[in-house]
Amino acid sequence: MALKLTREFYIPKGSMKIIQKDGDGIAYLYTKKTTWGFVAFHGTRSAKPDLHYTYNTEVARNKAVAKFFESRKEITDWKIENRSSKSGRDLKVGDIVYASWGYDQTNIDFYQVVALKGNVSVVVRKIAQHTVKCAGPMSERVVAVKDQFIGLELTRRCRKTYVRIDDVRSASIWDGRPLYQSHTH
């Protein structure tokens, strides 16, 4: 059976704990003979330290701790901003989204939002497409045909204007311009 080391294992004896006020950083400061060190963690659950350094002067150590706290604040702010930018939904009933996918060819699938569910889900249905221009051999430009449904309803979670259709396809809001599509036969 493997030994699982806890956070306490990494914290030097007699160290002073400093908790960051505007982030999730925690630092333990200690002094040994002529060196000043610190061990830094993020959050309350991480067992292994993010940093463990020693310095020749107390000033250098304090600068490093301040830099660590600053970086943890930036990360915390980014997480909050990123979480809020992904939550919710900017799609509305009638919007058209498209998925571009394929390996040796480019397939375009159009979906129309037919209903909103809860705060973050939408109901979409696949709709027909129309070729507007031949783009070369075995390729064309296609546009969606609104309200001409060819598929069943799918309930999917969305993030702003992005919908995950399945493991292969992700759909984004369509701007109305013809999209490139290719095929092998």
Topology:
Blueprint: H1 7-10, E1 16-19, E2 25-32, E3 35-42, E4 51-55, H2 58-86, E5 96-101, E6 107-117, E7 121-136, E8 139-159, E9 162-164, E10 170-173, E11 179-182
Antiparallel strand pairs: 1-2, 2-3, 3-4, 5-6, 5-10, 6-7, 7-8, 8-9, 8-11, 9-10
Main sheet? Answer: 6 strands, antiparallel, barrel
The coarse silhouette is elongated
Radius of gyration: 27 Å
* Beta fraction: over 45%
Mean pLDDT: 90
The tally of structural domains comes to 2
Number of helices: 2
- Give the beta-strand count: 11
Order of helices and strands: HEEEEHEEEEEEE
> Which residues sit in consecutive blocks of at least 5 with pLDDT less than 50?
none
Strand order of the largest sheet: 5-6-7-8-9-10
Gap from first CA to last CA: 58 Å
State the share of residues found in helices, binned by percent. 10-25%
- What is the SS-derived class? alpha+beta
Architecture overview:
With 185 residues, the protein is α+β, with helices and mostly antiparallel strands. It folds into two domains: 7-86, no CATH class; 96-182, no CATH class. Helix content is 18%, strand content 49%. The chain is built from two helices and eleven strands; from the N terminus they run αββββαβββββββ. The protein has helices spanning 7-10, 58-86; strands at 16-19, 25-32, 35-42, 51-55, 96-101, 107-117, 121-136, 139-159, 162-164, 170-173, 179-182. The strands form two sheets. It has a six-stranded antiparallel β-barrel with strand order 5-6-7-8-9-10. Strands 1-2-3-4 form a four-stranded antiparallel beta sheet, with helices on one face. It is elongated, with a radius of gyration of 27 Å. The termini are far apart. The mean pLDDT is 90.
